[in-house]
Amino acid sequence: xxxxxxxxxSIIMSLxxxxxxxxxxxxxxxxxxxxxxxxxxxxxxxxxxxxxxGEQGDWDVGLWAWYAQNPLVVVERVGEDETQVSTLVGTRIxxxxxxxxxxxxxxxxxxxxxxxxxxxxxxTSPLSNTATILQNVNDGSLGLGNITLWPKFQLLSRxxxxxxxxxxxxxxxxxxxxxxENEFMGEPALYFMPSILLSNADPVGFRWAVNxxxxxxxxxxxxxxxxxxxxxxxxxxxxxxxDSGLGLDWTIRTNYQLNSTAEEYHNPVVTHxxxxxxxxxxxxxxxxxxxxxxxxxxxxxxxxxxGLRAFNAGCEDAxxxxxCDEDDExxxxxxxxx
Length: 338
What we know:
single chain, twelve-stranded antiparallel β-barrel, two-stranded antiparallel ribbon, 2 helices, 48% strand
């Protein structure tokens, strides 16, 4: 890691560590009913980010839209049985506007702007002090979530033949951009999501990505099954792309709460599948669906999503020999310098 890279990394990590002591307990409505975090560029796999920071000057802009059913509910356990007693957020329609720019070959800055167009919940709830909150959920649907910055440092890169892996560090910084009346749309304080990224995720051929990180945020206790705070986060993405620009992707994600005391809390496991199609050298459309294998806060029973992205990522070079695939007589075999 050179001097400039180390200095920039040190500044961002110092900001993270400085903010940690400011965290405090939040109120009922000040939690996110959304845990889906879309990738910033086409190099990622659905909600799993690539370690590749791209080449200097690369940019990517995406518009995601989705429908989620029952992302935030309250359950009670009687014996071995669990019963849903309240639906805080039963329907949500929203998405995210994403963007990323490669400032250096080893540094990419991403931006995510989540938006909510509609959300509904129960009119009443057995939980105390929820009447005003549920009214706000049903009356004040339109709003913004936590706008998040995603600086990415690429620490290792594959060799010229594409062998090896990309290794990177992502430090998501969530900003308190929600309004008090926008219940369950976001958190009222800064939060941080550092993660280690491993990947080999070219658009053509087999690709994979692994993210291992943490969510450093305020404590939020709602009920016996919703008790949130600092948590670990793990993600795996697999995919395959064809020369035609068509690709299929699959991801799985889990979270582990570090300090939850909720009796009915489950560490969620969520999976998504998606299809993507490049439209020429500048646009991509995508769509998919997901479900919770193990339910938890922010993990809907069903999610359906679709979107469009525009990008400028140079030409495709599958064998990393410096020749664009369209001009390379052997696109899958590196050129012999002799």
